[in-house]
Amino acid sequence: MFEKSVVVVTGGAQGIGEGIVRAYAQRGAKVVIADVNVELGHQLAQECNEQGYSALFVEADVSKEQDIVALMQQTIQHFGTITILINNAGKFEHVSPYDITVAQWHNLLQTNLTSVLFCSREAAKIMRTNELGGSIVSLASTRAFMSEPYSEAYAASKGGIVALTHALARSFGPDNITVNCISPGWIETGDYEQLRAIDHEQHLVGRVGVPEDIAQACLYLTNPANRFVTGINITVDGGMTKKMIYEE
Ligand SMILES: NC(=O)c1ccc[n+]([C@@H]2O[C@H](COP(=O)([O-])OP(=O)(O)OC[C@H]3O[C@@H](n4cnc5c(N)ncnc54)[C@H](O)[C@@H]3O)[C@@H](O)[C@H]2O)c1
């Protein structure tokens, strides 16, 4: 299904991004791991290649325009084209809205939201020259729709991704490029065994999520058979945001 695909995964060195990299590699795609974490990025690319898959690590800070341009150029030089972009890189910060500085706000928005626009711009320039077209998927969050205290910049960045998704889907549609986003709920990227029963029970499906749950949604949204799907957000949260909780 993905043998002809060249996939760029930002923030692909660990966590959800790593799960996405493995899912595409296992399905025959050529995968570019773009990350600031050089050690883990190289390690994952090497592991994939030793298993007979095709992966390349590119050091890139997606909050920097010049790194984004260089990332896409290196992808073209190595694999010839780009058919899928997964905008996964992102970070979270707890800061009180009483204390947040302009610099903190801009820094988080630059990493989580501005990067999505400019990675999409550079990838789409290549995708529109492909016979197969292209697919862009960005990682938003259920925090685009609900909040804990002190998460204003993160929530705004993820809400921005949901809006940017339908805007880009509209603009890139005529060039045969689909644009969608995924809102993960609680996806455990650390030690799953440390989770408590109460953590699992707050999900309708009875468990906390894992990176593979998000990878499955990426595969769906970038499957050439599903090109009728564009401009949408898919919530992948085990039903956590649908569970009404009253105090007992
Ligand atoms: N884990 C969750 O529960 C959850 C829930 C909702 C949304 N998300 C979103 O999913 C995405 C992945 O989350 P995760 O939990 O795997 O995070 P993570 O922190 O485990 O991994 C993020 C990766 O992105 C990389 N990265 C960070 N800033 C970067 C930059 N400027 N340039 C390039 N790479 C950069 C990091 O080095 C790391 O490899 C993020 O966008 C996050 O906001 C995660």
Automatic annotation (TrEMBL):
Q: Does the keyword Nucleotide-binding apply?
A: no
Q: Name one GO molecular function term.
A: glucose 1-dehydrogenase [NAD(P)+] activity
Supply the PROSITE patterns for this chain: ADH_SHORT (PS00061)
According to its UniProt record, the EC number is 1.1.1.47
Q: Name one GO biological process term.
A: bile acid metabolic process
- Enzymatic class: oxidoreductase
Sorted UniProt keywords: Oxidoreductase
Q: Which InterPro entries match?
A: NAD(P)-bd_dom_sf (IPR036291), Sc_DH/Rdtase_CS (IPR020904), SDR_fam (IPR002347)
Can the keyword Disulfide bond be found in this entry's annotation? no
Member of which family? Belongs to the short-chain dehydrogenases/reductases (SDR) family.
For this entry, the protein name equals Glucose 1-dehydrogenase 4
- Organism name: Lysinibacillus sphaericus (Bacillus sphaericus)
The top of its lineage is:
Bacteria, Bacillati, Bacillota, Bacilli, Bacillales
Give the gene symbol.
gdhIV
